[in-house]
Amino acid sequence: MKKERVLVTSALPYANGPIHLGHLSGAYLPADIYVRYKRLNGDDIIYICGSDEHGVPITISADKENVKPNVIIDRYHEQNKSAFEKFGMSFDIYSRTSLPIHHKNAQEFFKNYYDNKLLIEKKTLQFYDNKAQMFLPDRYVEGTCPKCGFEEARSDECENCGSLYEPNELINPKSKISGGTPELKETSHWYFPLGNYQEFLESYIKEMNEKHGWKENVIQYCKGWFKDGLKDRAVTRDLDWGVEVPLENSKGKVIYVWFEAVLGYISATKELSEKLNKPDLWKEYWQNQDTKYIAFIGKDNIVFHTIIFPAMLKACNDNNDDKYVYPQNVPANEFLNFEGKKFSKSRGWGIDVDEFLNLFPTDPLRYTLASNLPENKDTDFYWKEFQAKNNNELADILGNFINRTFIFTQKHFENKVPPRGTLTDMDTEMLKTIEEYPLKISKLIEKYKIKDAVLEMMNLARNANKYFNDSEPSKTVKSNKEVCATTVNICLQTIYTLAEVFYPVIPTSSEKLFTSLNAKPTEWLNSGKSNLEVGHKLNKTEIIFTKIEDEIIQKQIDKLPSEVEENKDEEITFEEFSKVKLKIAKIVHAENIKKSKKLLKLKLKLGNSKRQVIAGIAQHYSPEDLINKKVVIVSNLKPAKLFGELSEGMLLAVEDKNGKLKVLEVDELVNDGTEVR
Question: What is the 3-state secondary structure (H, E, C) of 219-261?
């Protein structure tokens, strides 16, 4: 297989809280498995990550604790770095965006755009808190949405209905800093003309998808942005925490975190080059067009790595001789939930990586997460499943084969690799199996199908157990020791192959296996060949995988908030409920609403009357899928305007375990207009 120069990045985690298992499944474990595999394959690869240490969430955390932002970032950078190390992440560098090298790098990019007259300065109205003497970022202002009446809307966007509006449209705005009413004050910001790069981005993504097979969720997400049309995006903010804007008369302004954080990958690579005393090494990865750049992220970061960052690189490339490489693939994962619900720090739902690894070894967690990665849809971590993966697969399948092979070798062959005799068909088939599996697994990892690759790793262990059982060495050791020796020889070669192919997933366990084998890994595709010479002396062995008892797992389950606490509903009286009128409605027309990704406009028939409802289901249904469905609506809801359209009711829907909304449908024999009792 041709050797490659590969650059891998994982999304920079915010340094305002501890990382949890969901983070690992999204952007970090898949990347680490890929990187470890590529290193074993002999490729030239570096793996870059670090802490994202600017932005409003960090200042909010600092304000809550009444400390400076650097106190927050120092705490969580070190905590998360330590957690990653315990988890076995093999970063070449874990940097941070608060370092001078990053500030300089981000300012150089900004100046490049500014000097080439790419940035557009615009005057805008922004909320200002006179008590705090500061402009307020969007998240620091809360008020009532002018579209749907939601009382916790931000200054520019409503999370409830998805509406975008001007700050002066927000009703009853309040500062989350002082609690007072902020005033709108004119300020100016620089904007990046993202729309100018839409044609390039569409062409680039189409080409990368055709050549390298991007995930469907990534492609569809990008198409949604392109459909709405890319627009100018502000690249500065009025804050005192962040990378200062490198222009005169820009005091109090910083480079917006969405703009500078992705540049942290380049900054970190420069830092790595300096540490290796090879200051230009970073160019070999970022500016050599032979580099294969893979960006591992969670689905919430798709837009930044498929649209914004490539556009930024393109803008820089247009004005420089040294060209940056674009991501060849962005294998974004969906979300991992915890025991059927989203991770929530405020509700105590979930577990941090540090906390987990204080209770259990690393490799069983890596294996459990890897075998259940949310590659195409959201998945769940369950304590019982973690126990089953450890006990039934690592211990009973992989561990069982390893233990009995080593014990048998020690007992009957002086702990040395015995010679092979004449091969049976079963022997030949097993040798063929262990030679083919590294290539089979390699092809899956190269396509970022990590979960399928892990399944094949364990399938090899299953085949190994079957071979051991069918060969019956406990019988042949008495009846024909030459046949027995052949079986043990092949089993030891299989352990060598298992140690290597499992290494990217459970590195600590694999290293123990290589120690027991008194051997070192070879190049990946050679791992299925005969790597142990006859007479090779093995080392003392140890039990690698131990079972987890029921009471230990139950103790963790008992720590979780109860269902009553988790889902406790506010009680209402019968009289209050009786005010709600539910009726059957037939959908006779449906269409998308311009400028909205979430909303559909529905025309409904309720017996002799007609009704229009705006429903937030555009991401779950196409308009044509809804025609003639009979649904349940709240028919006496006070009308409201959403995106300028009148909504005269509310559709009832449920959310499945994958987060998909499904409207409640009724039997087609029920007449529309019928009241639900």
Answer: HHHHHHHHHHCCCCEECEEECCCCEECCCCCCCCEEECHHHHC
What residue numbers bound the domain in which 64 lies?
Answer: 5-118+193-333
Residues 420, 279: one domain?
no
The answer to whether the beta carbons of residues 41 and 525 sit under 8 Å apart is yes
Measured CA angle at 74 (ends 69, 78), to 5 deg: 150
Residue identified by tokens 């030949």 is 428
Is residue 25 situated within a structural domain? yes
402 with 508, same domain: the answer is yes
Q: Are residues 148 and 199 in the same domain?
A: no
In this prediction the pTM is: 0.82
Q: Which two tokens stand for residue 21?
A: 């298992």
Which residues fall within 8 angstroms of residue 619, CB to CB, at 6 or more apart?
597, 598, 661
Residue 540: inside a domain, yes or no? no
Residues 361 and 447 in one domain: yes
Q: What are the Cα distances from residue 251, in Å, to 118, 247, 248, 356, 596?
A: 21, 9, 8, 44, 36
Task: Verify that 383 and 520 share a domain, yes or no.
Answer: yes
- Does residue 542 lie in a domain region? no
Residue ranges in 560-627 assigned as alpha helix (H): 563-567, 574-578, 623-626
In the DSSP assignment, the letter for residue 299 is G
Contact criterion met (CB below 8 Å) for 534 and 419: yes
- pLDDT tens figures, 232-283: 999 999 988 999 999 998 988 999 998 999 999 999 999 999 999 999 999 9
Q: Are residues 582 and 491 in the same domain?
A: no
**Among candidates 610, 613, 612, 589, which has minimal Cα distance to 672?**
610
Clarify whether residues 583 and 632 are in a common domain: yes
Q: What domain count does the chain have?
A: 4
Angle 629-634-635 (CA atoms, 0-180°, nearest 5)?
A: 95
Q: Report the alpha-carbon distance of residue 34 to residue 50 in Å, rounded.
A: 18
Residues 391-412 pLDDT 10s: 999 999 999 999 999 999 999 9
Q: DSSP 3-state helix, strand, coil percentages of the chain (rounded to 5)? A: 45, 20, 35
- Give the whole-angstrom CA distance, residue 5 versus residue 328: 12
382 and 464, same structural domain? yes
